Amino acid sequence: MKPAFKRILLKLSGEALMGNEKFGISGEIISSFASQIKEIVDMGVEVAVVIGGGNIFRGISGAAKGVDRVTGDHMGMLATVINALALQNAIEKLGISTRVLTAIEMQKIAEPYIKRRAIRHLEKGRVVIFGAGIGNPYFTTDTAAALRAIEINAEILAKATKVEGVYDKDPVKYKEAKKYDKVSYSEVLNKGLKVMDATAISLCMENNLPIVVFNSLVEGNIKKLVEGETIGTLVEG
Ligand code: UDP
């Protein structure tokens, strides 16, 4: 079967890696992500991943406890590199070749991010994992996902969450919350819908990059997406 996308960017939050643990990385969850990624690599899809760090450290929460914001954001970016290495390890265990590329140089453990290099790896069938966000404080890994997806010409940004998609209100708190099948960038921004932060949405809007928000706890969803099935919520035009 011909996949619906040739190149996708998958955004995994740090929190998603925690699973039922209170902190850090759940071995079970990371292996599940790795095998779901392998499934679509085996279908011939080029896969890039941006990984968050919220399971370890977030600059904004650190700032609330007295950590200087810029220092906290640096700590947060380093946390994403820890997650990137864990994901790399889990994927390589399945026999898939990967590269971690970081926005903050640390060449003893990963390659520096260079757009052309990232694309070359993808063309060779390697899973590219982007660590350290965009490398600057005051940004999020959602913005990094939007930026990297645009830079590498990914056809879609697949944002993994714990719910089925985008809702008009928090579905965990409100039973009557309604899920959108499709929603526009401007509606997301105007209504303040919880998809990604405004910087990330604006970048996608300006560059016509569609976003699909889907439940990553349902195994097989990533495969369905690349098979062209409608899953989650599509954010575009
Ligand atoms: N961060 C940053 N610049 C970036 C990306 C991330 O400063 O380009 C920091 C920021 O402190 C953020 C933390 O890294 O809170 C972890 O990333 P994020 O909160 O986006 O992770 P997620 O919510 O996806 O787990």
UniProtKB/TrEMBL annotation:
Residues binding ATP: K11, L12, S13, G14, G54, R58, T161, Y167, D170
Top enzyme class: transferase
Keyword check for Kinase: yes
CDD domains referenced in this protein's UniProt entry, alphabetically: AAK_UMPK-PyrH-Ec
Residue span(s) of domain Aspartate/glutamate/uridylate kinase: 6-215
Enzyme Commission number: 2.7.4.22
Keywords, in A-Z order: ATP-binding, Cytoplasm, Kinase, Nucleotide-binding, Pyrimidine biosynthesis, Transferase
UniProt-recorded Gene Ontology molecular function terms: ATP binding; UMP kinase activity
Binding site for UMP: G53, D73, I134, G135, N136, P137, Y138, F139, T140, T141
Reactions this protein catalyses: UMP + ATP = UDP + ADP
GO biological process terms, semicolon-separated: 'de novo' CTP biosynthetic process; UDP biosynthetic process
Pathway assigned in UniProt: Pyrimidine metabolism; CTP biosynthesis via de novo pathway; UDP from UMP (UMPK route): step 1/1
Superkingdom classification of source: Bacteria
Presence of the UniProt keyword ATP-binding in the record: yes
Family: Belongs to the UMP kinase family.
Name of this protein: Uridylate kinase
Organism in which the protein naturally occurs: Haliovirga abyssi
Gene: pyrH
